[in-house]
Amino acid sequence: MGNSVTVIGLGPMGRAMAGAYLDQGYRVTLWNRTAARAEDLVRRGAVLAPSPAEAVAANEVVVVSLTDHAALYAVLDGVAPAALAGRVLVNLSSDTPGRARETADWARERGAVQLTGGVLVPPSGIGAAGSSAFYSGPREVFEAHRSTLEVLTGTDYRGEDPGLAALFYQLNMVMFWTALSGHWQALALADAYGIKAADLLPYSVGALDMKRFLEFYAPRVDAGDHSGDVDRLAMGLASAEHVLHTVTDAGVDGALPAAVVDLFRRGVEAGHGQDSSSSLVEVLKRK
Ligand SMILES: NC(=O)c1ccc[n+]([C@@H]2O[C@H](COP(=O)([O-])OP(=O)(O)OC[C@H]3O[C@@H](n4cnc5c(N)ncnc54)[C@H](OP(=O)(O)O)[C@@H]3O)[C@@H](O)[C@H]2O)c1
């Protein structure tokens, strides 16, 4: 018989995933709202199901790679509960931990099980060594299907709570999007001076390699130690203002550095001027 899997959602991620399963000899059933996105995969041997219900019926393991959980409901809410019963929904669609728990309940009400996933690599990392994804949900279901999951990426099982994989994924994305936005900001500023992204590349790589800082601050933050022996937030505020002025002097959009200045200023106003900038963690804990 061999292995088989259904993949629902053929954005860049779902297409890479379906391709990885085909590479490993799986029989792959597909469904996507825009059927044309399946063409290459069908040429490689995948089967395009005519409806979500038939895609779900084809295999026990149903990998769902949609934009978010609203899209999952748009595709699967119309499928009869009987068709979903006994299925393992490997839900790799990004959303909040709360939504992941709701969707796990939604699946359970239909006799299915959700494994929540959060993939940490772009499509080019699917099927590649060293890639990883968070998973949470029933451990025995995760273990039973681990080898199928690991066709896509390495697995990092976070626990039974279906929200956990989404939480760890979003923790990652908080850092990813903020850091990447900082990079886009630097490139916009560099462009104002005729500096190309490629010229800045070695400096960008250096600036975003924060391992040393992260390792230094982690135990101090956990110990509640924000002493200003290495850096002080008052210095950080002055530095953030220099960034903002450099950006606006160049005629570049300053919304992002202004938000950083605002955060640092609120920290100073809260009395942390002589503390480390890590004291912003305490400021941010209060909404
Ligand atoms: N791309 C990445 O680098 C990356 C990395 C890590 C994690 N992720 C996560 O992986 C998931 C998939 O990523 P992606 O880049 O493939 O996402 P995407 O480009 O947003 O495409 C996802 C799929 O969602 C479908 N879709 C969206 N709204 C729908 C609706 N209302 N009804 C039916 N289908 C709908 C699209 O169908 P159509 O083809 O018909 O539009 C497409 O198949 C996302 O949650 C993303 O956050 C992505």
Topology:
Elements: E1 4-8, H1 12-23, E2 27-31, H2 39-43, E3 47-48, H3 52-58, E4 61-64, H4 69-76, H5 81-84, E5 88-91, H6 97-109, E6 113-119, E7 132-136, H7 139-144, H8 146-149, E8 154-159, H9 163-192, H10 197-208, H11 211-222, H12 233-249, H13 255-272, H14 280-285
Parallel strand pairs: 1-2, 1-4, 2-3, 4-5, 5-6, 7-8
Antiparallel strand pairs: 6-7
Helix pairs in contact: 6-9, 9-10, 12-13
Structure explained in plain terms:
Keywords: Oxidoreductase. Its EC number is 1.1.-.-. This is NAD(P)-dependent oxidoreductase. By secondary structure, this protein is of the alpha/beta class. The chain has two domains: 4-159, NAD(P)-binding Rossmann-like Domain (Rossmann fold); 169-285, N-(1-d-carboxylethyl)-l-norvaline Dehydrogenase, domain 2, CATH 1.10.1040. 54% of the residues lie in helices and 13% in strands. The protein has an eight-stranded mixed beta sheet, sandwiched between helices. Helix 1 links the parallel strand 1 and strand 2. Bound molecules: NADP nicotinamide-adenine-dinucleotide phosphate (NAP).
